[in-house]
Design brief:
Blueprint lengths: L2 H7 L13 H11 L11 E6 L1 H16 L16 H18 L6 H12 L6 E8 L7 H19 L3 E5 L6 H8 L5 E10 L17 H4 L7
Antiparallel strand pairs: 1-2, 2-4, 3-4
The structure holds flavin mononucleotide.
Flavin mononucleotide binds next to strand 3.
Pfam families: Nitroreductase
Family: Belongs to the nitroreductase family.
Organism: Novosphingobium ginsenosidimutans
Length: about 220
């Protein structure tokens, strides 16, 4: 696949085929992803690639605890609720996804179903938990580097016909993930990535989210 096709074609995948992903292919994707740059080449990232029974236990634990109203225990700062233009963009993509799935604004059951899907890692056959070395937790470069490798991962996966969705929903209950994935104490859980073969019949998979323009995002200095 051409680079432009990967970048422009990739989108988050939230519906997967019930078909395993070979470990060798995931290794290939990780090898590509790990060419990502990092601060001073520290490469603070680690990947916990989970499938089968352990992943099912994580899905069940996440779902039970979230339904029981257990407050989230993510291991990173989540910030305040979005406002203004950020809130508009958040609502914008949610509207696109709900419209694609035919979920009405007042359909509480369907909305809950959608949220639970996230807690189950979108029923993907594989989940990659991205962690970083706790020793580097006091530098903002560390989450920046994790973002770089994770973006490279989802693009590398796409180039091989695999779909992903980066998500925080899967790690809202971090003790569940720690226990069933056996995450060592010297690592901090940063993000989850659901991974698998896209189900082309799942409507939300076709959603192309919007972007602000280059003009909006960019100032040119010294060009004229
Ligand atoms: C840090 C981060 C956290 C995210 N968390 C979630 C999540 O919890 N649930 C979800 O459905 N999508 C999640 N996403 C996916 C975003 O909604 C998605 O990337 C964005 O809307 C742009 O759409 P696209 O990936 O299809 O281009 C997350 C993405 C990132 C980068």
């Amino acid at each position: 696949m051409e680079f432009d096709d990967v970048i422009m074609g990739r989108r988050s995948i939230r519906g997967y085929l019930n078909k395993p992903v070979p470990r060798e292919l995931i290794e290939e994707v990780l090898t590509l992803a790990m060419r990502a740059p990092s601060s001073m080449n520290t490469q603070p990232w680690n990947f916990h690639v989970i499938t089968g029974d352990p992943l099912d236990r994580i899905r069940a634990g996440n779902t039970e605890r979230n339904l029981a109203g257990v407050p989230h225990s993510r291991e990173f700062r989540t910030g305040h609720a979005f406002e203004g233009v950020h809130r508009e963009r958040q609502v914008g993509v949610a509207k696109q996804l709900f419209a694609a799935q035919g979920i009405a604004r007042d359909d509480k059951d369907a909305r809950l179903d959608w949220v639970l899907r996230g807690f189950r890692q979108f029923d993907a056959p594989v989940c990659v938990i991205i962690t970083y070395d706790k020793e580097l937790a006091d530098s903002d470069d560390t989450p920046f580097d994790c973002g770089a490798v994770t973006t490279a991962l989802v693009n590398a996966a796409w180039s091989r016909g695999l779909g992903c969705v980066i998500n925080s929903q899967g790690i809202m209950q971090s003790p569940v993930v720690r226990e069933h994935a056996g995450i060592p104490d010297d690592q901090v859980i940063m993000k989850a990535v659901a991974l698998g073969w896209p189900d082309d019949s799942f409507p939300a998979n076709a959603v192309v989210s919007e972007r602000k323009s280059v003009e909006e995002a960019t100032r040119w200095v010294g060009f004229d």
